[in-house]
Amino acid sequence: MILYTERLILRPWQFSDAENLYRYAKDERIGPIAGWPPHQSVEESTAIIQQIFMRDEIYAVALKEDNQAIGLIGLSFSSDSNFPIGENDAEVSYWIGVPFWGKGLIPEAIREIMRHAFNDLKLDNLWCGYFQGNAQSKVAQEKCGFTHYATLAPQYIELIGETRIEETSRITYQEWRIAQQ
Prior knowledge:
Layout: E1 3-4, E2 8-11, H1 18-25, H2 31-34, H3 42-53, E3 58-63, E4 69-77, E5 89-96, H4 105-120, E6 125-131, H5 135-143, E7 147-151, E8 155-157, E9 162-164, E10 166-172, H6 173-180
Parallel strand pairs: 5-6
Antiparallel strand pairs: 1-2, 2-3, 3-4, 4-5, 6-10, 7-10, 8-9
């Protein structure tokens, strides 16, 4: 599955994306705020593509002008989500390389994944989360119509060895449909 927006291609990850993934995911401003450590090598990025990113509904975010991976957006369904959600729900996860911050690209990608989730996959609800202190993620979710749902209990994030508090937000199919009118 390949999805398109005005400026982006959302496409499956490829092994040839490993160098770009490493270029952006090694930045300490990316992973830790999302709960994962910075990448240490192209080889590690290759392994992550193979083991984690090469699955259904996980997309490389690429600019239309060159089709180079600059971030990720994806859907995690019910049991694969980081928090308890319904059987016909999905969690939206995303990140983008620092050089692309502040350009509205992630909200653009989120809106397309929402369209796909509600129109094509017929999901009931979409969920997002962000750790407290990640104001950029909070703003991106709000721009796309997600509203605060709950603050989760503090949780230990093993990958980064820290305890964090996650905020969750949700948009229902009905809320999304009304916003489209």
